[in-house]
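Reopening: Cytochrome c oxidase cbb3-type subunit 4 still failing for me.
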Amino acid sequence: MSTYQMLAGFAQTWGLLYFIGVFIAILVYALAPSRKQGFEEAARIPLRED
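Support: Ran it again with your exact input. Result attached.
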């Protein structure tokens, strides 16, 4: 196995795990009940008349 293949396999495996972890962290952030009110207020911003 060449160095390139070894590094490519490492990057593919750990890169995938890294992005899965980031995706789960974003889901936890977005779906946390404590953030619901802030997101609802932000969703109403375009509908406000100044």
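The mean pLDDT is 94. If you still see a failure, please send the error message rather than a screenshot.
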